[in-house]
């Protein structure tokens, strides 16, 4: 059995004694990982306050900011994730945990605040446009394979994206429930195909929320370059959460949430000739993309919204 440290406490004499007192108090947590994370968090928070010589007024602003993140979060909006995204924290954690523990390029990207569980199951080749949605048609053809090039059969793939006016369906009354969302299953060759409209870049929510206030104060634009989201799930493989960006988007280098890596810039090809379906107007687009899944644990994220 693990030896429990006996905590005796102390009377605090001055500022220098606060950090060790807190670390002592927390050291008796039986869970070793909790002990490690909580101690590092307190050390860094206290060092941060010392480094910037945090005033009491600034402390109040910080606490209010945290409280506002909580109040702005509900079943349809996840301000906590949005804030973590906008300070690059989500991308950092994603890149550290994928691609040989951060040593090599990875095809993973942040989940973002808009993934919903239970997207409608859609046959390969089917459309995820569920209510009238303007924009050029896009035909997507994907292959899913393992590190040796073998097809991964029966992987479940969630696809979701914003409409060309820049809103996810859950943000926009004018779109049908689950518009531009679908769940596909890879076939015997590890492939799935889908039809949709070409995504456009969009602004993350910035009106009346603390993340928006931060972006404005920092004179940062609030836009994401156009992308499709994918979440690939198959027991025996590490769940792959990712995004494929539109290659002609002018904001690839200035994504507000720092999500763009080279491996994730897709080739969205424009076509003027005959389309895969007779009713499709020119120009139409195609995207071919191959996902590689690593062996590991298949685990779904906690859905950021309902
Ligand atoms: C998204 O791509 O859905 C997203 C990611 C981060 C913040 C806001 C939106
Ligand atoms: Fe998105």
What do these coordinates show?
The chain has 306 residues and is of the alpha+beta class. It folds into two domains: 40 residues; 214 residues, Aromatic compound dioxygenase (Protocatechuate 3,4-Dioxygenase, subunit A). Helices cover 25% and strands 20% of the residues. The chain is built from seven helices and eleven strands. The strands form three sheets. It has a five-stranded mixed β-sheet, with no helix packed on it. A hairpin with a 6-residue loop joins strand 7 and strand 8. The longest helix has 21 residues. The protein is globular and about 80 Å long. It starts with 17 loop residues before the first helix and ends in a 13-residue tail after the last strand. The structure holds benzoic acid and fe (iii) ion. The site of fe (iii) ion has 6 residues, from strand 7.
Element layout with pairings:
Layout: H1 18-26, H2 32-52, H3 56-71, H4 79-86, H5 89-97, H6 99-102, E1 137-146, E2 156-160, E3 181-185, E4 191-197, E5 202-203, H7 210-217, E6 223-224, E7 227-233, E8 240-246, E9 265-266, E10 268-271, E11 284-293
Parallel strand pairs: 1-11, 8-9
Antiparallel strand pairs: 1-4, 2-3, 2-7, 5-6, 7-8, 10-11
Helix pairs in contact: 1-2
Bound molecules: benzoic acid (BEZ) and fe (iii) ion (FE).
